[in-house]
């Protein structure tokens, strides 16, 4: 069955530090992978997505993610975190079947220290 | 940029009452979804809708739930008799048609959600 694991429930970083949020997936075929961000009380905003091609994907707000098939991972990175990046981050894998639903990880809560 | 619009943003209802959550998907999208997120938990798939019928539903989507696209623009989720455990944020999403060569393009857009509180 398809699944997504985000091993880190909560991460705290200092402003200006680099960030890496981990995501591992289980999926039989070529995965469609997504990172979404959710600020408190807000909706889900797409940061970036991977379908095929270049395994390093650039997203909005200075985020990038790298797809590593051998590790079944799609880790999210940012070289320098801003206080406004504090939010909940969700990794998701898309079902490439007819219904194309998204299967979500539990999320990683990011806190940023000034 | 096109948006998925959800109303209301917050609804409080008494246990046992019926609620209807409304969504206006992006106009040229063909796939519609409802997801929910219980506070502090992950986002869960409820149902997908295509060609005026349910294409897939999760085990959460029991007989108390129904979806409808009554007029070609709105997409509604009805909970017939709400329970305390239905309290959650409900997200509507829509997705565009298949891309070239039959591969999905995943033009997936979420609404900002309806926070349902059952008391």
Considering the chains and any ligands shown, give keywords for the structure.
heterodimer, A: mainly beta, six-stranded mixed sheet, four-stranded antiparallel sheet, B: 119 residues, mainly beta, seven-stranded mixed sheet, 11 strands, globular
Q: Care to describe what's here?
A:
The complex is a heterodimer of chains A (114) and B (119). By secondary structure, chain A is mainly β. Chain A has strands at 3-5, 10-14, 19-21, 24-26, 32-38, 45-50, 56-58, 64-68, 73-78, 87-94, 102-104, 108-113. In chain A, strands 2, 5, 6, 10, 11 and 12 form a 6-stranded mixed sheet that branches. In chain A, strands 3-9-8-7 form a 4-stranded antiparallel sheet, with no helix packed on it. The radius of gyration of chain A is 14 Å and the shape is globular. Chain B has 119 residues and is mainly beta. Helix content of chain B is 0%, strand content 48%. In chain B, strands 2, 4, 5, 6, 9, 10 and 11 form a 7-stranded mixed sheet that branches. In chain B, β7 (65-68) and β8 form a beta hairpin. Chain B is globular, with a radius of gyration of 14 Å.
How many helices of chain A? The count is 0
Structural class of chain B: mainly beta
Class derived from helix and strand content of chain A: mainly beta
Instruction: Please provide the count of β strands of chain A.
Output: 12
Low-confidence segments of chain A, given as residue ranges, are none
Q: What distance separates the N and C termini of chain A?
A: 41 Å
Helix tally of chain B equals 0
Assembly level? heterodimer
- Averaging pLDDT over every residue of chain B, what do you get? 90
Give the CA-based shape of chain B: globular
Count the beta strands of chain B.
11
Cα-based radius of gyration of chain B, to the nearest Å: 14 Å
Largest chain interface and its two residue counts?
A: A-B, 24 and 22 residues
Strand content of chain A: over 45%
Bin the helical content of chain A: under 10%
End-to-end separation of chain B in angstroms reads: 36 Å
**pLDDT < 50 stretches of chain B:** none
């Amino acid at each position: 069955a398809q699944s997504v694991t985000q091993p880190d429930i909560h991460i705290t970083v200092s402003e200006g530090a680099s960030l890496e949020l981990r995501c591992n997936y289980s999926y039989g075929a070529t995965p469609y992978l997504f990172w979404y961000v959710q600020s408190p009380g807000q909706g889900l905003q797409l940061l970036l997505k991977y379908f095929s091609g270049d395994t390093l994907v650039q997203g909005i707000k200075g985020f990038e993610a790298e797809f590593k098939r051998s590790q079944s991972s799609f880790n999210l990175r940012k070289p320098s975190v801003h206080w406004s990046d504090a939010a909940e981050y969700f990794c998701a894998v898309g079902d490439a079947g007819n219904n194309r639903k998204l299967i979500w990880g539990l999320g990683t809560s990011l806190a940023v220290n000034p | 940029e096109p948006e998925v619009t959800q109303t209301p943003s917050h609804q409080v209802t008494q246990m046992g009452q019926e609620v209807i959550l409304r969504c206006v998907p992006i106009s040229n999208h063909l796939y519609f979804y409802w997801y929910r997120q219980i506070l502090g938990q992950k986002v869960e798939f409820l149902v997908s809708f295509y060609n005026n019928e349910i294409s897939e539903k999760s085990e959460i989507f029991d007989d108390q739930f129904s979806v409808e696209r009554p007029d070609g623009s709105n997409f509604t989720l009805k909970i017939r008799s709400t329970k305390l455990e239905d309290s959650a944020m409900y997200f509507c999403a829509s997705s565009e048609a298949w891309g070239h060569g039959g591969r999905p393009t995943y033009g997936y857009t979420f609404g900002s959600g309806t926070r349902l509180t059952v008391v």
